[in-house]
Amino acid sequence: MAQSLSLTQGMKKTEIIINQDSFPAALRPYWNQARLYDSSCSEAAQTIYIDGPQRAFLKISRQGTLSREMKMMSFMHSHNLAPAVLDYISEQGRDYLLSAALEGEDGIAERYLQHPVKLAEVFGASLRIIHSLPILDCPFPSRLAEMLAQSERNILRGYADKAIIKEDIKAAAERLMALKDSGLADVIIHGDYCLPNIIMQDFCLTGFIDLGTGGVGDRHYDLFWGIWTLQYNLKTAIYKDAFLDAYGRQDLDPDRLELCRLLSGFTQ
User: Fold this and answer.
1) Residue 22: which domain range?
2) Which of 95, 192, 210, 222 is the catalytic position?
3) What are the C-alpha distances in Å from 56 to residues 23, 80, 207?
4) Measured by CB atoms within 10 angstroms of the end CB, which terminus of the chain is less buried, N or C?
């Protein structure tokens, strides 16, 4: 799970001092009168929270790796569902993605976890909002096809996420091939629909973050991860029904949900 780009009570942060000369000149004005905190939670990227006149988050990763996230964030921001992109710089082997900090707390803030039914309901209703967006102008219109292609490549090299693919890998691969034509790319998907990636104020949605794996895909991919994150973060599966009822279980297809479980297990 990725760390939320929001100002949250539970956000891990360690105050740091940086060498400004090691960063692009365009970013340096944001350091003025600001305290800086490392809030990274992934080895793939460093995240710096900038607590200044312009509260922001700066994500730093290998050059070219944050381009998708920047484009999806900009698309979702155009629908008032994601932070504004303040700057994106790709140079000298690194990507720098600077985004405004959303107001609120992420879905694993203790105050939300203490009310799990309401949290599951808001989580489901918020996913419906994403899936109701028009797919026109989405920068990644073939996300489902990309996932299927990546899964097939990973199967050939013997990769599977054992936390998801708990059965025999060969049998799971055969099941994926049998179901692959059942998928429908008909909605905008978040692509990493986990509780840390939804930002709320008093249970009211303010936006989503960590959108780098989003695009036009099958709604069941987000539904699978929504079910998974509720069980993972709440330590029980009993809130699945509240989530699905709030989303609208009339649109749930068991075969497509199974397809998306397998896709989740064979992609990275």
Assistant:
1) 14-100
2) 192
3) 16, 17, 15
4) C
